[in-house]
Structures are given as structure tokens and as C-alpha cells.
Give the backbone structure.
Amino acid sequence: MEEFYHSVHLDSSLCKGCINCIKRCPTQAIRVHNGKAVIKKEFCIDCGECIRICPHHAKQATYDSLDVLKNYEYTVALPAPSLYGQFNNIDDANIILRALIKMGFDDVYEVSAAAEMVSEMSRRYIAEHEQDKPFISTACPTVVRLIRVRFPNLIPHLFPFNAPVDIAAAIARKRAMEKTGLPSEKIGIIFISPCPAKVAACKDVIGNDTSEVDAVVAIKDVYPKLLPHMSYDDDLEVDHVRSGRIGVGWGNSGGEAGGLLTDSYLAADGIENVIRVLEDLEDQKFTDLDFIELDACSGGCVGGVLTVENPYVAQAKLKKLCKYLPVARNHMNGKYLDNAFFQKPIEFKPVFKLGKTFAESFDKMQQVEDLCVKLPGLDCGSCGAPTCKTLAEDIVRGEASEKDCIFVLRKYISLISDDIDDDD
């Protein structure tokens, strides 16, 4: 089976074998064996919750360093709108965009500008496909991966649009080539990401074969480099801002839904809430909505683990910045961009199946049920699995033993002890 690219990884030298991560992981992708955590890559959706919860910093994200700028003759920064919420007392996004150029980029193109285009195209698409509602946003790659592996019946409800970063990258590359005359390979399109999921999505593209993004750096790495360059005093006549309230609002939970200019929507943030909404949607509890926006991180993209500011403080900062912006600066005039849609369908990835065939899976599901009766049902995590059912599944897969459960082991030892006493 095809494997996903993963940004989230484990540094086993830092792991202390605690079970904080196995309890937090929304897809139960982590186990603790021999005193060290292990990430089951086929289950991981790169949400970053284990990075957030690990007290020993053993879970980390892989992304490009800022040295990647040296690999290209001309570089364009693609700042995510969540970047604007990291700084204090900003009433003009130009301050941040000019600072990006001062720190080493040759040009900037806001992801929020492409977000406004997606919002307008989404309004048209919903109006043209009323029969397929509700539509689920594909802007959060963690949510898309979650649906691909856990909620296959909801795949037809996913918006068929590329994420704003992919559209922004294509536009930025075309502009840079026209401006400089350089070939594509000498131009670096660098995305400034708030989370590992977006890193993974740029490396392992959803709905397309390749990405126009050449490298992905973290907001937390860019942030300290920008601070010395942020001022009002020079180049004030150059306006780099290409987006308005709708585009910048995408950095907050509910921002994308707000850009659709409709009241028939639901917006949820935080991975537990996302899963609850998806379960209810699968049970057809929502029948009269146009659109569902789901953000794996609390607060939206401002809550990504590669940011530096408290997400709720960042939300307030973004809202304050939006006061000084027009509603939108990008208008499609009823058209769709050539690169707006996915080039290939999103497919179900049955990573959780127990067998190779339906019959084998059904048989193993019965084995899991039988094992769950034997196990204590405490979900204590002492065995290294997050729940007793997960341990049972691991046993059926041949990856664990009943004696990994401390209560089963104690009972086994007690029986051996009784047999020894009887022999005496």
C-alpha cells in the first residue's frame, strides 16, 4: 500500500516512555514498546498533537531550514495568513511582507490572496452543485488524511479544490518567471508553514502529482529573523499586500466559512471536535448545511505547532488586522482558475483493516471482540497501547501478546504460582 510522507517523527533518544502521546493521538498511531514510543506511520495523519503534548520534546517536525534560500537564484516567500497573528501592534501587513524581503527573500506572494480566489470559486461551485451538499473544506491536510483513512463515505463531500498554498505557489512561480526571465528550476517558491501537516501536504501532494512549492520552512524559524527588520520607516510606498479580510481571515477557525458569505455552515476546530463532527456527518445528522470547515488545530491555523503565539491571542491579532483591510482584493468574475481543481480523485486508504479480504477482516474483528472480553477494559495504557481494544487489534495483527497487559500477566503469574504450590 502507498505510504504517506510524514513530517512528524520521533527522536527516541529523548523519549522517556511515558504514555502522554498514546492517549492524545487521534488515530491511535503511537505505541510504547521497551520503554520507547513508536509511531505506526501508516496510521499517522501528521496532526502534530504528539508534538504538542510530549513533555520531553521527543516528537518533532521535519521541514526545510532557511538555508534552502541559497539553493535558488530568486526566491518567493508564501506566508500563511497565520503568520500575521504572531506579531504585536501590527496594523499593516506590509510591515511583515517587507521584513520577509529584508531577511533574504526576493519577493512575496500571500497565500491569503489565493484563499480569496478559492472562496469566490467555492461560492460558485456550491451554487452549481446543490445536490452534493454539504461540502467539506480541503484546506486542512490533516482533516483530508483523516477522512481518507477513517471516513471513506465522506470522501465525495470533499471540495475538489486545491489548497490556497498550491494555487498561490503556481501564481507566484508564473509571476517570478515573467518578472525575472529565469527558468523555473532557478526559482524557489518557499512556503512559511504553521504546522507539520502542511509540510507533509507539500511534500506528498493531495489530489495532484506534483507541487509548485519547492520548500517549506516553519513560522517559528522565520519569526525571530523577521523581528529586526520590522519597521514603518522605509519603502512605505511599496504595497505588497494582495489580500483583504476574507483571505487573511482564513488563518482563524471560521474564516474560510465566513468567506463563503453564507449562514448555512458549520465550523469546528480542535481534532477531537473535528472527529465528533465527522462521526455525526457520517450518521447524517447534518442535512441542511452548505459547507463544513474543519481545522485540526485549536483556533485554526494560528494553533499550529510550528507557530509561536498563543492561538487565541493570535486570533485576536488577526481580527484586529482585518479591521484595516478591504473585504477582498481578488475577484474571479465568475471564472475558475486553470489549476483550481484536483487533477486526480482522493481515494480511500484502508490502513486500519485487519485482513487482506473482507472475510479475513470479519474473522479477525471477531477475534478482537473475543480478546476484549478477556482484557480488563480499563484503557490504562500500561501495555503501551492507548486502549484495550487497540491492544486486541495489535494481538490479532501479530504485533503484541496478551501478556503485554499487566492484569493478564498478573493472572498468568498467579496461576503458575498456584501450580507450583500444588506440586509442592
